[in-house]
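Ops channel
N.P.: pipeline sanity check, posting one input/output pair.
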C-alpha cells in the first residue's frame, strides 16, 4: 500500500528515530508499504519519518542504475548490485570513508528541489534486517550517497542541512514556499 509522503517542514522529519528492538508484523507491513511508496514516487530511497513514523527503518533501491557503484561488498563478499535491491535496513551504524564527492541530490519530502551536496564517497554500514540478521555492506557511488541520505533522515538531519553556504541562497526561495504551503495546509 502506498502511504502519504510527508513534506518539509513537518516536525516528524526532525525526529531522532527510535531503534527497533523487536521486529513485528507492523514493521514488516511498514517496510512493504515504504517500498511501494518509494517506487510509486520514483525515489531511490525512503526513510520511515518520511511516512510519519519515527523508527530506524529505511529502504533503498538503485537497481535502475546498475553502473552507479564501482564495488559492492556484503558481509565481506562481492555482491551483485541489482539482485541486492531493494534493501530494507534497520538500526544502521555508518562508517564514512575519507574521500569526498559532490553530486546532485533530491528528496521526496522536498518536491521540486535539487541541490549539490558534498559527502564522503565510500561507506561501510552495518544494519539489521527484518529477519534479525546483521549485515555489513561496503560501497561507493550513488548507493553510498543514498545510505548517508537515508541514515541522516533517521537522525532528523535533512539534505538541506548539508548544502554549502553558497548553495543555500539557491534553495532558500523553494524552502520558504514549502514552509508557506505547510502553514496553509495546517489552517
Ligand atoms: Zn530524503
Amino acid at each position: 500500500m502506498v502511504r502519504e509522503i510527508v513534506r518539509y517542514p513537518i516536525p516528524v522529519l526532525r525526529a531522532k528515530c527510535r531503534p527497533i528492538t523487536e521486529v513485528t508484523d507492523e514493521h514488516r507491513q511498514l517496510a512493504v508499504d515504504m517500498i511501494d511508496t518509494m517506487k510509486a514516487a520514483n525515489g531511490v530511497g525512503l526513510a520511515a519519518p518520511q511516512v510519519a513514523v519515527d523508527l530506524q527503518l529505511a529502504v533503498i533501491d538503485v537497481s535502475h542504475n546498475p553502473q552507479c557503484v564501482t564495488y559492492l561488498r556484503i558481509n565481506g563478499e562481492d555482491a551483485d548490485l541489482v539482485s541486492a535491491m531493494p534493501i530494507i535496513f534497520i538500526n544502521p551504524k555508518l562508517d564514512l570513508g575519507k574521500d569526498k564527492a559532490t553530486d546532485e541530490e533530491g528528496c521526496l519530502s522536498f518536491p521540486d528541489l535539487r541541490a549539490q551536496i558534498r559527502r564522503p564517497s565510500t561507506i561501510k554500514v552495518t544494519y539489521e534486517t527484518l529477519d534479525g540478521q546483521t549485515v555489513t555492506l561496503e560501497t561507493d557511488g550513488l548507493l553510498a550517497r543514498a545510505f548517508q541520505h537515508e541514515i541522516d533522515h533517521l537522525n532528523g538531519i535533512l539534505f538541506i542541512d548539508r548544502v554549502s553556504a553558497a548553495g543555500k541562497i539557491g534553495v532558500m526561495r523553494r524552502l520558504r514556499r514549502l514552509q508557506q504551503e505547510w502553514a496553509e495546509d495546517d489552517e
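N.P.: looks fine end to end. The pocket of zinc ion is lined by residues 107-109, 149, 153 (CB under 6 Å).
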